[in-house]
Design brief:
Length: 802
């Protein structure tokens, strides 16, 4: 068949293949190839790509034109089509033996002498690919040379265009500016290619001073990351011995990615949704292993066994950045907070600026930063000083140090749309798989009989097994295995039970000979609990997670209290500060804050009601008076935080604290407090919590809209509803659950996007089983998994659909 005839006969199929996805990308790629090979001229291109016209019309116009141009053009068109279409769609369009090597021909022609403008056209397909990941940098280069105005940049950047369309607009705009502008773009792309492949070139070595700095950076990082800090108080555990892979998944469906992700995939190309962005987010719940995962990456990089495309890696902890009160430039941020170069600071920083693709930044715990992410203020100048959070947000957006890859970790609650639009991709850390739990317990207990016993007792206690998918609980359960194995039937069910178990374990670990029966262990250590409780409570109220000696003193924390092991010395890469402390984990801090609320004689009457208020209404009356100077960057910000809404880190922490308060005030634990606090006070606090939970539930039920005629009555629950359910579960009192459910009258309960995992399923089943009438339960877009479904079994009888 003549190739022209083929184009005519297969017109419908070709149109379908080019346009049916609704995206113009395939058509535009074909046009790029035809332009680069001179089969189309610019005027043809402009006649085809008429802005605002339907995609199908543009494609038809191209087919008409190609047909009239004759068989050579048709042949190249078919080759281009085969080149750009995915495998399954190309069938039938190739013309055997004719012009099928689109890219090779391009390279051959590179040999010819051309002007820069001609090269821009001849290399159009590859230039579009190169430029789409770095439009901003290319624009910056063009502006710096005076070839582009800010209006030109805005025209390229129009957000309705995809990155590849922006790259094409940039090339079209540059062509109209003439030869010098074209030269700048070609030089820019060449430089980028060189820096990107530098590390892969055998004969390229970075400057000596940079290599020296890399050595210093990696040796201090290796020292900082080789032990796991949660074992610091009791024993040293090397990360190599205990690290167990968590489950990593892409947040977005991606057809090219199958199976679980590995550690290196976090920075790899798999699942990229915005190739122009540099920031990868790793999200996961508190205690889910985000910091440990970064620690692992740091250690592997420092040893030269992973992430070797990056010459320098700078690790930051947002928790520690909170206490930086000075305005800093990026250079100061890197050198003061990570590693100080002994010599030639300027040269090293210049190297970093010149080779952004060789640099990786990690920011752990964005949710712990006092200021929630915002892209309203940003900087572009690497030498300008600014408050640390502005630097951080500018780096994440890429207005500063574009091209440097950044990995940020955060709890999902703190990730809003402002941050999402700057993400290259989002990876979710789901905690341990069932075999991960098994593996962790075996690593923790070298004695296989002990490991087998722990696992056996976990299999018998499904609620606890559900909790162990979160590494922090797995750690506690393994740490407290003696208590766990000693408690026979029953055993811990709720997160409060588990934390009480570790409280008892740590207290008794320090004074093993003293009373171990009844609640004696608590009474003996009541002062420690109260001191740490106050420190934790004050810290949660002011988003403070690192404490100075003065903070400790203000709350009466003594050396003996520190020795209990709940407070660890804060690791600091720069080690310029005096000794600072933090709780083993932020959940431990929430637990002590809850202990303070429950046990302290000074707890304000309004504290419990405020704790249970929805976040947007919660005034920050949860703070008391101590200084905490080190944590508060400035009076202004302090005032803002006091007046304003809860900061990003506050909400989840206050919610976790409220969950613990519910658990600690459960009837099951009241005997523990008998000798610590008057029972009348305790009873009153219990009543307050029960009232708050009931009121909170009622508010959710009131928001249910009446059913549309002919449709079922449905409630779309918010994450706050799931939190209240978890609080009710912590109380372990079926009367409260029954009471709450007696007022819920719906046929359908929608719990989509509520961050529901196995732990939440246990709580849901506990409460929903008391529903009066059957409901349909919708749980799409959560991470329920097989384990979660198992946890839901107790409420299956009341679900008519799931
Ligand atoms: P996050 O940063 O998500 O709050 P962490 O990384 O601090 O969670 O984990 C809490 C604790 O759980 C750690 O201190 C450690 O004891 C344990 N842990 C977390 N991830 C792992 C892992 N991959 N392997 C072994 N233990 C882990």
């Amino acid at each position: 068949m003549l190739v022209q005839e083929l184009v005519l006969r297969q017109r419908a199929e070709i149109l379908h293949a080019l346009c049916s996805s609704g995206s113009a990308e395939h058509l535009e790629q074909v046009l790029d190839i035809l332009l680069s090979r001179g089969e189309l001229i610019i005027e043809d291109y402009q006649n085809i790509q008429v802005p605002g016209r339907a995609l199908y019309t543009n494609a038809r116009q191209l087919l008409d034109l190609v047909h009239t141009k004759g068989s050579d053009t048709c042949a190249l068109f078919c080759a281009a089509l085969t080149h750009v279409l995915p495998e399954g769609q190309r069938v039938g369009f190739s013309v055997p033996g004719r012009c099928s090597h689109v890219e090779e021909k391009e390279e051959e022609e590179e040999e010819h002498q051309r002007t820069s403008t001609q090269t821009l056209l001849a290399q159009r397909p590859s230039l579009v690919r190169e430029l789409q990941g770095c439009i901003e940098d290319a624009l910056r280069a063009l502006v710096a040379c005076g070839h582009f105005t800010s209006a030109d940049c805005d025209d390229v950047r129009l957000p309705i265009h995809t990155p590849s369309q922006q790259a094409r607009r940039l090339l079209d705009n540059v062509r109209s500016k003439g030869e010098p502008a074209a030269k700048v773009v070609l030089q820019y792309v060449q430089q980028k290619q060189e820096s990107g492949s530098l590390l892969n070139q055998e004969n390229w070595t970075p400057p000596k001073e940079v290599l020296k700095y890399q050595k210093k950076l990696s040796s201090s990082m290796s020292a900082q990351s080789c032990f796991l800090s949660s074992y610091g108080g009791t024993s040293h555990m090397s990360l190599d011995d205990i690290y167990t892979d968590g489950q990593l998944e892409l947040a977005h469906n991606c057809k090219d990615v199958h199976g679980p992700l590995g550690l290196e995939d976090i920075v790899g190309t798999a699942g990229t949704v915005n190739a122009e962005a540099d920031t990868v987010l790793v999200s996961g719940d508190a205690g889910g292993g985000k910091s440990t995962l970064l620690q692992r990456l740091h250690l592997l990089w420092a040893r030269g066994t992973a992430l070797q495309d990056f010459l320098l890696l700078f690790p930051f902890s947002c928790r520690r950045l909170n206490s930086e009160r000075q305005e800093l430039s990026v250079q100061e941020l890197l050198f003061q907070h990570c590693c100080w170069p002994d010599r030639e600071q300027e040269e090293i920083f210049q190297f970093i600026l010149d080779h952004p693709h060789l640099i990786l930044f990690t920011f752990d715990g964005l949710d712990e930063l006092k200021q929630g992410f915002s892209d309203e203020h940003w900087l572009c100048c690497p030498t300008q000083r600014a408050p640390v959070h502005i630097l951080l947000f500018s780096l994440i957006q890429g207005s500063l140090m574009k091209g440097v890859r950044k990995v940020v970790t955060s709890r999902p609650e703190a990730v809003g749309p402002a941050l999402k639009k700057h993400l290259r991709k989002e990876v979710i850390l789901q905690g341990f798989s069932p075999s991960g739990i098994d593996c962790f317990v075996h690593k923790h207990h070298r004695d296989p009989t002990v490991a087998a016993k722990v696992l056996e007792s976990l299999q018998k206690n499904t609620a606890l097994l559900g909790l162990c998918h979160s590494p922090v609980f797995c750690w506690i359960v393994s740490q407290c295995h003696k208590e766990l194995l000693g408690c026979g039937e029953g055993g811990p069910q709720t997160i409060t039970d588990v934390y009480l178990m570790i409280l008892q374990h740590f207290f008794q670990h320090q004074s093993p000979l003293k009373s171990t029966t009844g609640s004696g262990w608590l009474q003996e250590n009541l002062n420690t609990a109260l001191h740490l409780g106050q420190l934790a409570f004050e810290g949660i109220g002011t988003s403070c997670y690192i404490f100075s000696g003065t903070d400790l003193e203000a709350c009466g924390v003594t050396e003996k209290d520190i020795c209990m092991g709940f407070l660890i010395q804060s690791k600091d890469m720069s080690s310029t500060h005096s000794k600072r402390f933090e709780f083993l984990h932020v959940i431990t801090q929430c637990f002590f804050a809850a202990l303070h609320i429950v046990l302290s004689n000074n707890t304000d009457r309004s504290t419990i009601p405020k704790l249970f208020e929805p976040p947007n209404r919660r005034a920050t009356g949860l703070r008391s008076s101590t200084c905490f100077g080190a944590c508060l960057p400035s009076t202004n910000q302090q005032e803002q935080a006091f007046k304003g809404e809860a900061t990003s880190s506050e909400t989840p922490n206050l919610q976790i604290t409220a969950t613990f308060v519910s658990g600690l005030l459960s009837q099951r634990h009241l005997s523990l407090w008998l000798h610590c606090c008057p029972s009348a006070v305790m009873e009153k606090r219990v009543r307050q919590v029960v009232r708050c939970l009931s009121k909170g539930m009622h508010k959710h039920f009131k928001s249910i809209s009446p059913p549309v005629e002919g449709e079922k009555k449905s409630m779309h629950a918010m994450p706050g509803f799931v939190w209240l359910i978890k609080c009710i579960y912590e109380m372990q009192e079926s009367t409260i659950a029954k009471d709450a459910m007696s007022k819920l009258e719906v046929d359908h309960l929608k719990l989509t996007y509520c961050n529901i995992g196995p732990v939440e399923c246990t709580a849901l089943a506990y409460v929903l089983q008391h529903l009066r009438n059957p409901i349909g339960l919708q749980l799409d877009n959560n991470s329920v998994g097989d384990v979660g479904v198992e946890q839901l079994l107790p409420c299956m009888h009341i679900c008519n659909s799931l």
